[in-house]
Design brief:
The chain has 2 helices and 26 strands. By secondary structure, the protein is mainly β. A hairpin with a 6-residue loop joins strand 4 and strand 5. It starts with a strand and ends with a strand.
């Protein structure tokens, strides 16, 4: 049974904007709650091809119970309506813009979203995939495999996977346009594995175990969401640049050109850049 959804239509959402009172990278933004839902929406991914917003919904009761497996469901938000992908135990999504395909990670391998909005098996049968990341600049598809949370690049055509060296594990993952890999592993600190190097570099100034989500914007900038705000991560500077303060703990982030989405417990927010005449 679908969770009870409290939806806000576009008209009412936009009338409740907060008068450009949020600053992101020095620019004023509006904020609107585009969805309220029971659970924790995470793994946000925006599809620029059709404007769908994909997310994984985590059941908090099962998350906090060590005796049961955490329950997760895969959704996408289309025209302000949440749609559940109900034929799979979805755990993450990634969009391949070049191939016009949406990949879905599950506890039974890699799937894709077909024309009927159903998950269809593609590769990695019986593998438990918990994270996906698809860079815009390359054909690589990065995946994190449970239980060791090791990072691999999947070759979908050959049904093969290649381990990413020098990245021991990842709970959040992003790759920039220079193939530098940003991740957070058991140390609870965010690091970057620079292309061609053998040892990762740790970012400073971010509190231990405070990283919650990571994404790459349309300018190939890596943005980290933490307990106290959004930070810009650069491969040549170990000190992050704070872009925005947050008054809640985030669980996901994704970008749509100059606008972006951030989720937290029970809510997905859309931040829209203010335009002045």
């Amino acid at each position: 049974m679908l969770p009870l959804l409290f939806l806000m239509v576009i008209g009412s959402v936009y009338t409740e904007r907060e008068n450009c009172s949020y600053l992101y990278d020095g620019m004023p933004y509006d904020r609107a709650a585009i969805l309220t839902i029971k659970g924790l929406p995470t793994n946000l991914v925006f599809n620029p091809l059709n404007k769908d917003l994909h997310f994984t919904l985590i059941d908090l009761d099962s998350l906090q119970n060590d005796n049961v497996q955490t329950k997760m469901e895969q959704y996408f938000l289309r025209e302000n309506q949440p749609i559940k992908i109900n034929n799979i135990n979805g755990q993450a999504a990634a969009v391949d813009v070049k191939k016009q395909k949406v990949y879905i990670a599950s506890d039974d391998g890699l799937h894709f979203l077909n024309a009927s909005d159903k998950a269809q098996f593609l590769s990695m049968k019986d593998e438990d995939i918990v994270q996906l990341f698809k860079p815009l600049h390359s054909d690589d598809l990065y995946a994190v495999f449970f239980p060791e949370n090791e990072v691999y690049v999947i070759d979908v055509q050959r049904n093969e996977k290649r381990k990413v060296e020098n990245v021991p594990c990842a709970f959040i993952l992003a790759v920039d346009d220079r193939n530098n890999i940003y991740y957070e592993c058991d140390s609870k600190y965010v690091k970057v594995m620079l292309k061609g190097f053998s040892e990762p570099v740790e970012f400073v100034g971010i509190a231990k175990n405070s990283a919650r989500a990571i994404a790459v914007d349309n300018s190939s900038r890596v943005v980290l969401a933490t307990n106290d705000g959004l930070y810009l991560l650069k491969p040549d500077n170990i000190i992050p640049t704070k872009l925005m303060d947050l008054d809640y703990v985030p669980s996901g982030i994704t970008f749509d050109e100059e606008n972006f989405y951030v989720s937290t417990n029970g809510i997905i927010y859309k931040y829209s850049e203010c335009e002045y005449e």
